[in-house]
Amino acid sequence: MIYKLIKILFIIAGITSIAFYFLNDWPVWPIFVILLGYIALILVLSTNIQLNFFVKAYHNNPGFSENAVALSFDDGPTEETLEILDILDRHQAKAAFFCIGRNIEKYPEIFKEIIDRGHIVGNHTFSHTRKMGFLSSKTIQAEIEKCDEIVRQTAGLNLNLFRPPFGIINPKTKRALENTGHKVMGWNKRPYDAITKSPEKIIHRITRDLKKGDLILLHDNMPKTAPILEQLLVILKQRNFRTVRPDKLFDIHAYN
Ligand SMILES: [Zn+2]
């Protein structure tokens, strides 16, 4: 609703500036300012999942009853996932894995292993394409449904949770999710591990200002994640943080 209002206001401003340009000899720059302003606003709104602007998502739960934080891993399953599962086992931690359909097809046994070891899995689309922000709602829906179908065939589960690739949620994603009915799980601790080289920096970004009920985002498709996770779990223990599985943090169901 607010988005529609913003869109209408920008359209009115755009038409007015074009009319003034032709009829009243106004300069051309107001037209560009309005256009760029609109593009910038949409970019900010669709790439900041925590704003809950287009879709309400689960990011953290500061009111959680225990001194616990939650772990989540995106972009698997891969061969790296197995070591991560071993580390989680050693620390008796349960996490959420948002898996890419294409990777589940490639590593069905690793995918089943995630579930067998007591973690939950969620939908992270079929292809995780870089064009995510430019897809039609129909294509996004197909991406989500294809991943769902692979999970059903591989593990017999109906996924309830979705995490958008790159955290992009725009009006098209919103429409697709209205049709598929998935709940969206975001995060509130994103260390940008995929684009940051230094493990120390990644751990610092997670642990500085870490509070109970926080949800951490990592990726199980990189060799550096295992040592980072090992260190992180030691720090969590030193700070008396337990880990809680994300579905339990928000009291929601991972499957239908
Ligand atoms: Zn991803």
TrEMBL record:
Transmembrane intervals: 5-23, 29-49
Record InterPro entries: Glyco_hydro/deAcase_b/a-brl, NODB_dom, Polysacc_deacetylase_ArnD
One biological process term in Gene Ontology: carbohydrate metabolic process
Taxonomic placement: Bacteria, Pseudomonadati, Bacteroidota, Flavobacteriia, Flavobacteriales
Gene Ontology molecular-function annotations: hydrolase activity, acting on carbon-nitrogen (but not peptide) bonds
Domain of life (superkingdom): Bacteria
Ranges for domain NodB homology: 67-244
Name listed for the protein in its UniProt record: Peptidoglycan/xylan/chitin deacetylase (PgdA/CDA1 family)
Keywords: Membrane, Transmembrane, Transmembrane helix
Entries under CDD domains matching the protein: CE4_NodB_like_6s_7s (cd10917)
UniProt cross-references to Pfam families, sorted A to Z: Polysacc_deac_1
